[in-house]
Write a structure and sequence with these properties.
Blueprint (H helix, E strand, L loop, with lengths): L3 H26 L3 H9 L5 H13 L6 H8 L3 H15 L2 H37 L4 H27 L9 H29 L2 H20 L7 H14 L13 H20 L1
Helix pairs in contact: 1-2, 1-5, 1-7, 3-4, 3-6, 5-6, 6-7, 6-8, 7-8, 9-10, 9-11
């Protein structure tokens, strides 16, 4: 199962990128320049993951040449990293494979949250509120949802490999995780899109309240992933925004209580949205 994860990740990344390109062309051909510009704008945050990838290459002692910089400029840096993982599996040691897989899983999760998630929200809104019969935006939204869910699952898979024994979860567990992540993300995105269709900019007030609650809650947990106070606060704020859509465990040990709190706050948020 370990070797199948990077292959499936690369396949979904290619499918998502192809569907996004089709959506861009679709809006351009139909003269929908507003949606075309917004879809292009969703690509910009993804450069944060590309920049971090270049910095990690440099930290590992690989001075990035022109071709590597060009790949990252075209947002193909993660494709190259997945290719390196596949080559390392063919002839490298387990430690090297695990290190490279960890880098690309973290980078892919960052890219998915910064780039795929905004694209998913945009295309879902287009399908629900603007063009319900739009096939290409619908396919792009569906593949973005699946790709984002898989990025979360592959990150969880990597954290399992870090545990003593390097045990890879069975395929049935991976499938259950994928279904859970897809369902959780899909319902959250659909709820926000429907709310935005009915109440317009009030959706930002609801999302903002959820973001503040999650950020303060993360701060109360005293996570020690980031040591410096300013960066620690920024990390909690960024992760609080992620918690609007999904739960990511950032502390070792059992997480049932934290997951229960997350779902309680999410349910309260949905009820408040309904009453509005």
């Amino acid at each position: 199962m370990r070797g199948a994860v990077p292959r499936l990740s690369l396949t979904l990344l290619a499918a998502e990128s192809g569907a996004r390109l089709c959506a861009i062309i679709h809006y351009l051909v139909r003269g929908q320049l507003g949606w075309f510009g917004l879809t292009i704008a969703c690509l910009v945050p993804g450069y944060a993951a590309q920049l971090l990838s270049i910095l990690w290459f440099r930290a590992d002692g690989h001075a990035p040449g022109c071709w590597l910089l060009a790949l990252h400029l075209l947002q193909l840096g993660l494709w190259k990293r997945y290719w390196d993982v596949l080559r390392a599996e063919a002839g490298g040691g387990a430690g090297e494979v695990l290190a490279q897989l960890g880098d690309v899983c973290v980078l892919r999760l960052l890219e998915a949250l910064l780039q795929t998630l905004p694209h998913l929200l945009l295309q879902a809104y287009v399908v629900v509120a603007v063009d319900p019969a739009g096939f290409i935006p619908g396919v792009s939204a569906g593949l973005s949802l699946l790709s984002l869910a898989w990025a979360l699952v592959s990150y969880s898979h990597f954290t399992c490999l870090l545990k003593p024994g390097h045990l890879s979860p069975p395929a049935a567990v991976i499938l259950c995780l994928l279904l859970w992540r897809t369902g959780m993300l899909g319902t959250r995105v659909l709820a926000l899109v429907l709310f935005a269709r009915l109440y317009s900019f009030w959706v930002f007030a609801v999302a903002g309240v959820h973001w503040l609650l999650m950020s303060f809650w993360l701060g109360a947990q005293q996570t020690d992933i980031v040591a410096q106070p300013c960066r620690w606060r920024l990390f909690n704020c960024l992760l609080g925004a992620v918690y609007i859509f999904c739960y990511i465990n950032v502390r070792p040990g059992p997480s049932r209580t934290r997951v229960a709190v997350f779902y309680a706050v999410s349910t309260w948020n949905v009820l408040c949205s309904t009453w509005m």
